[in-house]
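ok so heres the complex, two chains, lmk if somethin looks off
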Amino acid sequence: MEPGISEPLRLRPPRHRVSPRAIAWWTTQATLEVAVVLIPLGIAVSVWADARAWLVPTTVAAVAIGLAYLLVMPRWRFRVHRWETTEDAVYTSQGWINQEWRVAPMSRIQTVDTERGPLQQMFGLATVTVTTASAAGALRLTGLDRAVADELVAQLTATTQATPGDAT
Amino acid sequence: MLAVTPLRQLAGFLPVIALILIVGIERDFGARVYGLLAGVLLVLLVGTLRWFTTRYRITSERVELRSGLLFRTARSVPRDRIRSVDVTAGLAHRLFGLSVLKIGTGERTDGESRELTLDAISSSEADRVRQRLLDPSYAHRRGDTVTPAAVELAALSWSWLRFAPLTVSSLVALGAVAGAFAQLLNDIGADAVDVGGVGERLTTAPLWLGITVLAVLVLVVALGGSVLIYVEAWWGFRLVREASGTLRIRRGLLTSRSVSLEERRLRGIAIVESPLLRIGRGARTVAVATGLGGRRGHGRGSLLPPAPRSEAHRVAGAVLAELPCPTATMLRRHPLVALRRRLVRAALPVLAVAAGLLFGPAPAWAAWAALGLLPVTALLAVDAYRNLGHALTGRYLVTQHGAGVRWTVALLRSGVIGWTVSQSLFQRRAGLVTLTATTAAGHGGYAVIDVMTAEGLAVAQHAVPELLEPFLQHEAAVTAHPLGSGS
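and the predicted structre for the whole thing:
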């Protein structure tokens, strides 16, 4: 029963990309996150004269890292974040530095939730969460176009309702 | 219930009653006693009212419980949602031949498990209700007085008592005694650091004597306490398979507990070996089942007290009705890159601390002392690597991992309801993935950690055919393989 390892296998990327507007959304999010760190640092530099010797280099480093994060993360995510549904399963990939691929069979899907935060509404995006009976198996499809998300939810709901059983 | 609830409530009031009686005994003694009597009467009255207003009913479809006079509550649970029926009886209950029946649905909404509790019904009635709820055919056998045969899978052996000190309960005992001691000192207003010149005597007595006395004291408390806890918890332990397809665990000296677990909810089994238990070659067997209430409900899945490792595997095999037990199969080792990852992770923090100490204001020997930790963390890393393993048997996916606490989990392949493949930046460079089989039972997911990408995917593909298949790319098909695919 041991699986042969002589057959090299790879996961292929899911078929659909998320909406390109997700890049703008992630960038806005990242900007807010970076601002939370940089603004107090900036205030400290201007107020705390004694500590400038080490505060200024720290701030410069933080600005550099923050800028890099802001520029790299959204684009990298856009390359990774993908999704696909077949008749039998939902398949997603997400992450950037750390990546994750998830598969859940249609027959085990319990709930399909849509979520639109204020930022996502601004960009016309939505996040769809597909949960199974497993406490660890939820699939999140972030940054979908709103219309695509609605269509997907309708399709998933219809498919899972047609499947009998309590999905455990 | 008529007797037990007021009794327990009165017991809770005992310190207050004592206080009322003792403090200022000369003044107004009569008034105090009358006040007390009124209080006791009130408690009894409330208890009686509760008894009169509490009703339960078991129909062919639902279990219903109504209670309350002013605030009426009615709860009902559909019988096909019932996942577990547990019976417990504390000392007060046992005094009156009563039990508490808990009907669990295993739902995890709001983090609070939806349970229906029938407090204080007679023990024989509790047993009847339990059997009726778990065994759909019970109603047809009503006239039959012969209960169907149950198979005993495991029973307590007193030689297992040697594992008691190797469990957390020895620490719990220590903590309890230390806590009680501190409380006592606090209550009599003494300074815990210097009681009756103990501090002075300690400083004048030789240091080794003080340390030895303290060590012996700690050891005695830990040993004695853990043995007591073990005996109380596991007295009369029996694991039985009932004819209705239910696993039943009965145990407990003062508080008797009975946990029933439907076999169709079982998705696998886990052998858990804590570091101390591993030293004594002991292990615990834990059921991986749905409806136990997730991570927090894991204690309820305990199928065996801390016992010899061989016994843990034997019971696991008996519960799964698989011989040889999947948890005892030979596991495939993970690639050596996984060892390198663990060694790096063990060394980096130590080196960082040492470097910090070296360039910081600390004396130079501190940095060397920090470096002295390196062999320890390296050993832990090697242990964590040696604990990695996985295998596929006919019906089970077996995975093993853990630094310190070693988990060996056999998960029913048909119980896998999805896959998560994750890869960190460093894993990607090393060509490794972590493959997690998600399931409705237990922790919700069980991981095969740091396995070669192709091998991990092959495991997923073989374990649950067709689920992952459409998303796989056979590299052999892309670039012509000189040897073909020879699986």
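quick notes: Chain B touches chain A through 49 residues (CB under 8 Å). thats all i got rn
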